[in-house]
Design a protein that fits this description.
Blueprint lengths: L7 H13 L11 H11 L7 E5 L5 H10 L4 E6 L2 H13 L5 E5 L12 E7 L8 H11 E12 L7 H7 L24 H10 L3 E14 L2 H10 L4 H4 L6 H13 L8 E13 L2
Parallel strand pairs: 1-2, 1-4, 2-3, 4-5
Antiparallel strand pairs: 5-7, 6-7
Helix pairs in contact: 2-3, 6-10
Length: about 280
Amino acid sequence: MTEDLDHPQKLHFSGVFHRASQTYDSVGVDFFAPIAAQLVARADLAAGDHVLDLGTGRGAALFAAADVVGATGEVLGVDLAPGMVELTSGDAVDRGLTQVRVVLGDADRPPSRDGGWDTAICSFVLFFLPDPVATAGRVRQVLRPGGRFVVSSFDQSDERWRIVEDAVKPFWPDEPTSAEPAHPATLTHFSSTANVEALLRDAGFTDVSTDLIEHENHYRDVEQWLDWTWSAGARVIWERVPHDRRDDAIAAGLEAVSSLADDDGTLVERFFVRLTRAVAP
């Protein structure tokens, strides 16, 4: 663990994702794996590469990278949430992936490797950190010259789904917690593709470029949507509500989401995602 692990933002999200770890990416909604596959493809990995996965979660990008680098390569996953580390480490053992390790650590302080990492990947993590430019600069320092850094981040959200926040917001305390940022796409560094690319250039990277992709989540009903929100970072919308008001907030959220359902009760939520690639000089 690092010297500034007691930063309130890190402590907050370490707890959020620890509590989500048991159901993270396992409620039947295909979100993380397909996006991680495209993230890894963007990294142009090769057999034998050494890869650092920052904020590894339950390993969607970690295992996709391991498939490419093979037994002669190495993939190290780092995560602040103890539950994520324990469960993903167990998954790696169950899969017999001797080239994979998962350790408890801080994406903000990426571990070094003799000779540098060939690639660092960071799937939906950089915007959770207090100073993403400084973090990216430290990532550059642990890459070899010519090493790649590939980051996924959210572009603007599906406008139809803003009704969820509108329904739940009245149940939030008047003052937001300082540890919890707004939706990532509202943060300055992540409010546009140009800003994300500028962040990486400011951190010393070159050859910065972005692919924009669209992904659809399909929920069989509002209950599965609710399960998915609790299983991912979106659980902060519920955890921000005081316990004595949470049932009412959830009921309001479900009522709002029900208005978006098709005749058969299914729901589609669109996500717009940036895959940004940069090179260490």
